[in-house]
TrEMBL record:
ABC3 transporter permease C-terminal domain segment(s): 264-384, 714-819
InterPro entries for this protein: ABC3_permease_C, Membrane_comp_ABC_pdt
Superkingdom as given in the UniProt entry: Bacteria
TM stretches of this protein: 23-44, 257-281, 313-331, 351-373, 404-424, 436-463, 484-508, 710-732, 763-787, 799-820
Keyword entries, A-Z: Cell membrane, Membrane, Transmembrane, Transmembrane helix
Signal peptide region: none
PANTHER family the UniProt entry points to: INNER MEMBRANE PROTEIN, MEMBRANE COMPONENT OF PREDICTED ABC SUPERFAMILY METABOLITE UPTAKE TRANSPORTER
Pfam families according to UniProt: FtsX
Protein topology in the membrane: Multi-pass membrane protein
Keyword presence, Transmembrane helix: yes
Name of the molecule in the record: ABC transporter permease
Record's subcellular location: Cell membrane
Amino acid sequence: MSAAALELGRIVRADLRHHRRSLAGVFVAIFVAGALVTGLGVLVESGIRGGLAPERYTAADLVVGAAQQVDVPEDLPVPLRERALVPADAAREIAALPGVEAVVADVTVPLAVPGGAAPDAVVEAHPWPATALTGFTLAEGREPAAADEIAVTVGSAHGVGEAVTLAHGGSPATYRVVGVVAAPVAPDRSIPVFLTEDRIADLDPRGGIPHALGVFVDGDPEQAATAIRESFPALVARTGDARGDVEFLDSGAARTLLIAIGSAFVGTCILVALFIVSGTLSLSVQSRRREYALLRAVGATPQQVHALIAREVLAVAALAAILGLAPGYLLSSVLQSAFVAGGVIPGDFALAVSPLPAAGALLLVLGAAWGAARIAARRPARLDPIEALRESSTGPGPIGLPRVITGIVFAAAGLSVSTVPLVVRGDAAVGASAGAALMLIVALAVLGPWLVSLCVRAVGPALRRLSAAGFLAAANTAVGSRRLAAAILPIALGIGLGLVQIGGPAIVSAEAADQARAGVTAQLRVSGPSGLSPEVVEGIRDVSGVDAASGVVVSAAVVDSRDIEGKTVRAEYALQGIDPGTVDGPLDLKVREGALGALDGDATVAVSTDAAQSLGIRMGDTVTGVFGDGAALDATVVAVYERGLGFGALTMDEAQVRAHTTSGLDSFALVSTEPDVAATVAALEAQGLVVTPASGQKAAGADAVSQQGWVNLVALLVILGYIAIAVVNTLVMATGERSREFALLQLIGASRGQVRATMRTEAILIAAISMVFGVLVAIPPLMGMSYGISGQPIPAMPVLGSLAIIGGMGALALIALRLATGATLRRRPIEEIGSRE
């Protein structure tokens, strides 16, 4: 090792010993960043390796099912929302493979306890042979042999010989219990009952085509799974806990969602961490400007100053990041609980824990710290020795022209992108607005010291006339605009991010609710716990007082399109199925072109105006993709309507959509009635149906919007928590740096109360400028998003949430500065003025 390297190492060690206080802020910022990135990394890994353990298929060696996702080039796969069926002849062909002892097909038919209210637990009917998949054995009685016979589980409160009434699609049927079965571990998610195979085929709208196959093998299940995958590329074969991926539809969706959330969240956290660590490190470097000035004056090269700062930061960052790993794993459990509470992922989804997230977090956080060190070292490294000594006494000068130009370019780009919704509507407008917010935040970070200096000069005269404390505050802030900017920017960043995060879902939700409310012209919404069969909907039309009844099916489809580079893009859209012959009375989609009456089978589709623009299609064009169960979708556009947020981006014939759903039933029916609504409601409820006012109809995709809003809220709370820690950290560092200034003020006659009053005035100034900057950053993207979604320039913001973010972040500055000032004033002025910096 060279002498220069050894000398640099000694200087680094000495700096770490003597500047613990200034580097403590950097330590805290990186510690929190390490914990955040580790926790989010656990979520990403869980999306790859975690999942749901099987319940009904625990006895099978392996489980085979159809693929429940659509692959997307260069992107995450899109999960299918409906059950994709296994080919009818797959069971026979798999049974013929070497080593396979038996193959048991399973079909799930949803049933419900009639009575006008949803049961506490889901009742699912399966064919009797499927008892082998869970290990059910007869505890009493025999297996079902007739269509009206049923076997129930131990603890179901029904015994052999009793009658049980269960409804499918709103049609009740009475079964006689002939058997009671028990298993080593009973399923928790549903209450299984078992019928004959013929009865299941009669109830199932698809004739009993297998939903999944349980395979029993003589040998290694993994080898058998590999053989099945090779022989049947369109099927998936899972062993161990991965069997739950075939059993539960929400497993695949949760996997994709966790990967998407974790990846996006990590990127945001690294960006925020880079801003915060860079600002904190700049304060640390500024507090030691005399030291760097002396190094430059005695011959240190710019490369050596860069190396010195980088090694100091990496030494602190390595320790902080390592210590933040363990809290990061704890944070992942907290995030999991938060997502479960919001219905984003299932409560029994298991996280995958390994050292990989910790390793990834170390690389990312240390990389961000190194980048922040390079940014912070630019000014002290590039000054010539004479300029360095001058700056050590007078403080840093204004930001350079290249930085001003860069900031103006980002600001102009952000404002320009905010206007995209003037010509583009729907999801594209939302994406453009989010991008605009990031550009404006970057512009604020780059131009921050200059903007703060302008604001300070603007309010300075008024402060000087206010009081002695105002005079001192104006003088201090005018000289220390960079120090002030280091405190203002994180607060403004938090306010801007917070308003955009809560504003997006609120704008979408408000417009969707308005469209759903305006589009439903029926008086009643009729549903059943497990859906409605076409026969039940037809029977509703015969009820006295019913003018019209239209069944509605809610599903989803994955549609193909092309991006600007000509690459295939696949995205999920809400799909609605309606009866074109009866929809005119109960439903108004506000059709702009064509007619809903032209919908006929699977060859036609109506699209919303937003979807038409996003997909680049018009009347007469073809929509291609897959239905919710993976079946091919190829339909011609015959109508374009406006109320897509309220009723789905795509609308097709009810029978066609219903054929591609898991249950094969209508989701609900919209009913128009005569003036005597009460009598009609009583007649419908007497049939065991659930009747509610149609005005309370939820918008299509409302659950997805709610989940997205919850994800944004969790992300916002975590990021704001990080920013709050960084703000306190920054203000404590900046205030501690001024200890000699406070001592000098007291020695020349100022009282502690006057010093506190001065700092209180500065705190108010910091809070006010931060709130103004944060709101200004958020206004253009939110206005653009609102116009793109609702056509209105004024966004529908949650008032209390917005005030809480703005007021909370502003109050943080007041509290942090008060505490930091009190701590700094504890030392006697005569001792502090004689201390070394």
